[in-house]
Amino acid sequence: MMAIVKQIRRLTLFETLLLLALLLLAAFMSLPIVFIINHAFKPFHELFLFPPTFLVKDPTLTNFYELFMRPVARIVPFSRYLYNSIIVAALSMVAVILSSCMAAYVLSKLQFSLKKAVMAMIMLALMFAPETVAIPRYLIVGWLQLNNTYFGHILPVIASPVAVFLIKQFIDQIPAELLEAAKMDGASELRIFIRIIIPLSMPAIATISIITFQGVWGDASASTLFMQDETMKTLPYYITTLTSGMANTVAGQGMAAAAGLLMFLPNLIIFLFAQRRIMETMVHSGVK
Q: How far apart are CA 166 and CA 168, in angstroms?
């Protein structure tokens, strides 16, 4: 603590003002997080106060109790939707990272005849919005008979042009001499990929992990389009049912506030973890 105080005393007037401005900006940017946390613990009458309150006055766990104990048609519990979301998000992250890293390594360091054509298709795919491929995805999932399966959730997100592009751009920075030296020592392509490419690409992998998790964790389209069995649907779909319809528009607001916090916290945790990992890898990886 004394070291921090001494360091602050050494700051110039401009540096002090800049530090204060950044602290104020950080406090302002954290207001939505404070609101989400407080909103989830508001009792029913505080949710509809006018003017609305920013901080909760009488915190309660009623919203979480109702969220956990309210099944759909008294059949599917909340824990089933949460379990499905965790499984789908985890498997999707692993699948996207593996497929994107392998594709990026091939496109970056190996030579083959259709390399430029494949890169052109990937760049073209970056211009398409997800809504434009919803019908082809539905037809492919139905043709493969993947409805009401976990693979039906995962398959549409495995091919990620953004992930391949970002990781390829990072792998391009790895010196070719390093790979040639490994090959001279007898390393195979698989060993080079696992022992060199993956560790040095961790900043890009961490970034892709954030993007993939956020996209899959908050996506309800797969549950809506591909899953007819209620037990195979995920948490985002369940949240949309809390406030849908005339009967639940008001009554489900407390549960929706609690569910919103549960949806937000994993994103915040994985973002903070990945950010720290990015900084550590950039320091120790040796990639310039």
A: 5
